């Protein structure tokens, strides 16, 4: 009698053991909690520099994955900002990029950073792959422009 119940108990114990093994391996448990992706989103840093060597974004060209963030940090020579050329970004990206940019002071125009250490972040989540060319409004004439490649 009751062999069915007995089997169920064994199954329940087996499930518990499996669960406990999973808890022991925390990295494995964490990996199953995030949606599948080829790699975790990362933040890529770009420095805004203005000194005796000139005005520039460094590095001037970066390559990121969809979903990554770009973090601009003012190092020297302010004010600096980030402005995208609407005709030098992928077709259909302008509206989404405009929403992804916070504190804009004009179309695809980020706020002016004034102090060393100030940062400005843009998330490329949901933005199409392609080439995004941008510049710093105060220093465009001095060659302060750069490229973000979204893969
Ligand atoms: Cu600048």
Describe what you observe in this structure.
The protein has 151 residues and is an alpha/beta fold. It folds into two domains: 3-33; 43-150, Cupredoxins -  blue copper proteins (Immunoglobulin-like, Sandwich). The protein is 25% helix and 28% strand. The strands form two sheets. It has a four-stranded mixed β-sheet with strand order 2-1-4-6, with no helix packed on it. Strands 3-8-7-5 form a four-stranded mixed β-sheet, with no helix packed on it. Strand 1 (43-51) and strand 2 (54-58) form a beta hairpin. The longest helix has 22 residues, at 3-24. The termini are far apart. Copper (II) ion binds next to strand 1.
- Overall shape: globular
User: How many strand segments?
Assistant: 8
Indicate the proportion of strand residues. 25-35%
The helix tally amounts to 3
* Distance, first to last CA: 63 Å
How do the SSEs run, as a string of H and E? HHEEEEEHEEE
Helix content: 10-25%
Multimerization status: single chain
Content-based structural category: alpha/beta
What ligands does this structure carry?
A: copper (II) ion
What's the main sheet like? Answer: 4 strands, mixed
CATH superfamily descriptor of the largest domain: Cupredoxins -  blue copper proteins
CATH architecture of the largest domain: Sandwich
Descriptors:
151 residues; alpha/beta; Immunoglobulin-like; 2 domains; four-stranded mixed beta sheet; 3 helices; 8 strands; binds copper (II) ion
Summarize the SSE layout with pairings.
Blueprint: H1 3-24, H2 26-33, E1 43-51, E2 54-58, E3 61-64, E4 69-74, E5 83-84, H3 94-100, E6 119-123, E7 130-135, E8 145-150
Parallel strand pairs: 1-4, 3-8
Antiparallel strand pairs: 1-2, 4-6, 5-7, 7-8
């Amino acid at each position: 009698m009751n062999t069915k119940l007995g089997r169920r108990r064994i199954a329940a114990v087996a499930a518990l053991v499996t669960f406990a093994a999973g808890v022991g391996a925390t990295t494995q448990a964490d990996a199953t909690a995030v949606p599948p992706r080829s790699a975790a989103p990362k933040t890529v840093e770009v420095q805004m520099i203005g000194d005796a060597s000139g005005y520039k974004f460094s590095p001037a060209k970066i390559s990121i994955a969809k979903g990554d963030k770009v973090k601009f940090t003012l190092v020297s020579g302010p004010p600096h900002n980030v402005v995208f050329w609407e005709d030098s970004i992928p077709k259909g990206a302008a509206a989404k990029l405009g929403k992804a940019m916070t504190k804009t002071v004009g179309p695809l125009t980020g706020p002016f950073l004034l102090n060393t250490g100030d940062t400005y972040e843009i998330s490329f989540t949901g933005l199409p792959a392609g080439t995004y060319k941008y510049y710093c409004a105060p220093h465009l004439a001095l060659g302060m422009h750069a490229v973000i490649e979204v893969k």
